[in-house]
Amino acid sequence: EKAVNLKKDLAEMQEWMTQAEEEYLEKDFEYKSPEELENAVEEMKRAKEDVLQKEVRVKILKDNIKMLATKVPSSGQDLATELNVVLENYQLLCNRIRGKCHTLEEVWSCWIELLHYLDLETAWLNNLEERVQMTGNLPDKLDAVNDALESLESVLRHPADNRTQIRELGQTLIDGGILDDIISEKLEAFNARYEELSHLAVSRQIALEQQLQTMRETDHMLQVLQESLGDLDRQLTSYLTDRIDAFQMPQEAQ
């Protein structure tokens, strides 16, 4: 009777493992939304806990069969063979579920990381857009144009590391068929805005550089003219002080 019960327990254990494999490992999942992916992660975590909890039952079966083998060697030997198969299948099931759970957790982490980098770069684009708009109505003063140019250039010096991460994380998920529609839409919108604002910012930067150059050249010309007029004023004052007749002056002084 003991042997019959143990044999029944082994069969039930094997049946449970077959069901667990069908439910958690053989189903084809499509993760088209973050909610579906998150639910799959939580389900696989529960599956891992459920499988690992069966370890106690497997150990009890193993101990009981060993004990029976010492008392009834013939029955124990047959059950030991079946036990080895169950133990092997159980270990394989544990490893596969652990692996799938780890993979899904990595995928979820990848998605969260992608959102993080998108948030960072979106904040940078907002800042860039604000700086570009600030260059629209500048007072016609050299200092104001120079400050606006330096401010815009400081934002444009933003490193490309985050965008590289966005591209690589997004491609990894899309290649795996995970959230591909949502990610493609997000990346398309982000890239379009990035290209538009970058080109606008660079065009505005070039315009400010040209404006600044023109203003500096004009200031320099005015300074040279002012110095020349100052020299002429001093020379004419000297002529007047010395009561020199106009016809005695050089032609340019006349």
From TrEMBL:
InterPro entries in UniProt: Spectrin/alpha-actinin, Spectrin_repeat
UniProt keyword Ligase, yes or no: no
Entry protein name: UTRO protein
Superkingdom in the source lineage: Eukaryota
Keywords: Coiled coil
Gene3D superfamilies: 1.20.58.60
Annotated coiled-coil segments of the chain: 3-64
SMART domains: SPEC
